[in-house]
Amino acid sequence: MAAITDLATPSAFARSPSLVWESYHYRRELMRTKEPNKAHLALAEAEKRNLFTTRCTSCGFIEENNDSPICEALRNRGLPNENGPEIAVKDLPSCRQCQSLVRPYVVWFEESVWPDVLKKIDEEITQCDLFLVVGTSAIIYPAAAYAMIVARRGIPVAE
């Protein structure tokens, strides 16, 4: 199986959206069988239990999708197989507004955080009384910069 650092990139998605979607599907399904601990429950409550968000590659429409599988073509798929049959792009998750291919709404390696997200972070960190770095590392930018900004204000930072 390819490393997530190889699959979680715009170039990997352009090359094989099928393999990238299979990878995300595999990880989502793997987590569905796990029981959350108290920290997971607190994060889930903070996130309002949104399980998965997608962003359209054409029109930019952002949508929450809690369905599993996220599309029928991923049903019964397990560990992504680079040498297996590709799922046709037309069968991968698509936008409800323009029917184009959607992608996981995450920042991939080789990418910058979207300007609208940066703006929201800038607004939110001025109000926080605790800063949690989740899903990345406090040494990876821009998370590292935000952690330093709030820490300078005396706000606790947890990774």
Would you kindly provide a written description of the structure presented here, covering whatever features stand out?
The protein is an alpha+beta fold and 159 residues long. It has two domains: 1-111, SIR2/SIRT2 'Small Domain' (2-Layer Sandwich), CATH 3.30.1600; 112-159, no CATH class. The chain contains six helices and five strands. It has helices at residues 4-7, 10-15, 17-32, 38-46, 115-125, 143-152; strands at residues 53-56, 62-64, 102-104, 131-132, 157-158. The strands form two sheets. A three-stranded antiparallel β-sheet has the order 2-1-3. A two-stranded parallel sheet has the order 4-5. The chain is globular, with a radius of gyration of 17 Å. The two termini are 28 Å apart.
Give the strand line-up of the largest sheet: 2-1-3
Q: What is the string of helix and strand elements?
A: HHHHEEEHEHE
For the record, the CATH class of the largest domain is: Alpha Beta
Termini separation:
28 Å
Helix and strand composition category? alpha+beta
| Total beta strand runs | 5
User: Which percent range describes the beta-strand content?
Assistant: 5-15%
> How many structural units, i.e. domains?
2
The residue-averaged pLDDT reads 85
Radius of gyration: 17 Å
Q: Low-confidence segments, ≥5 residues, pLDDT <50? A: none
Shape: globular
Report helical residue fraction.
25-40%
* Main sheet overview: 3 strands, antiparallel
